Amino acid sequence: MRNITSFLQVLLFSFLLLSSPNANAAEQEHALKAGFLYNFARYGNWQDNTTNDEYFNLCSADAAFVDTAQSTLKQRSVDDKPILIKQIQFEGEQFNHCQLLFITSETFIQWVNWHNVHPKALANTMIVGESKGTIEAGGHIRFFIASGKVRFEISPQQLQQSGITMSSKVLRLGRVLDR
After folding, report:
1. How many CB atoms lie within 10 A of CB 50?
2. β-pairing verdict for 164-166 and 44-46
3. For residue range 46-99, what is the model confidence (pLDDT) as tens digits?
4. Which residues have C-beta within 8 Å of that of residue 157, sequence separation ≥ 6?
5. What is the CA radius of gyration of the chain?
6. What is the DSSP string of 24-82?
7. What region does 102 belong to: left with phi over 0, alpha with psi -120 to 50, or beta?
8. Is 94 strand, coil or helix?
9. Contact in structure between 86 and 58 (CB atoms under 8 Å)
10. Is residue 47 within 8 Å of 165, Cβ to Cβ?
11. Helices (H), ranges, 74-135
């Protein structure tokens, strides 16, 4: 019960950030999604925790999302590791230390093209997107808007194939695919 309360508190915190009169719609949506990503990270379990990183690395190729996420998730941590928001490019091996990768609609095509060439490069990385086709293209979680609210669908089977499991508390809040 305490974990669900914490989850709801972060969502409320994100909502309060969004209600600022100076924040534009894109920043508001990015802040809310950053709050969701934080909770996905907190309630996800990476079976291969062999990385010796001192940070929990949340990566995205979208500069606007990275800027908003850095301010939204400032001083947050996952498993006692501070969150480091990294802007990456879809080239080479930049994903080696990303525990969570967020693919915005602006970077979806770049990610699909890169992922088709490097399909195994993102093992042990949770992939979250916001475009239709994210899960079909190898992602694990996709945000969508329903009745004016941000919702998500999740593929626990694809997560497990990448060496990640998600708490049933999170699964109950989303639309679960492939069960």
Report:
1. 7
2. antiparallel
3. 987 655 679 999 999 999 999 999 999 999 999 999 999 999 988 766 666 889
4. 177, 178, 179
5. 15
6. -HHHHHHHHHHHHHHHHHHHEEES------SSEEEEES-HHHHHHHHHHTTT-EETTEE
7. beta
8. coil
9. yes
10. yes
11. 108-117
Q: Which domains does the chain have, with CATH numbers?
A: 2-176 (3.40.50)
One-letter amino acid for residue 38 of the chain: Y
Residues 108 and 131: their CA atoms lie apart, in Å, by 7
Residue 57, token pair as written in the block = 């690395």
How confident is the model at residue 50, as a pLDDT? Answer: 54
CB 36 within 8 A of CB 7: no
pLDDT of residue 152: 97
Is the pLDDT reported for residue 2 higher than 80?
no
Token pair 């908003």 is found at 68
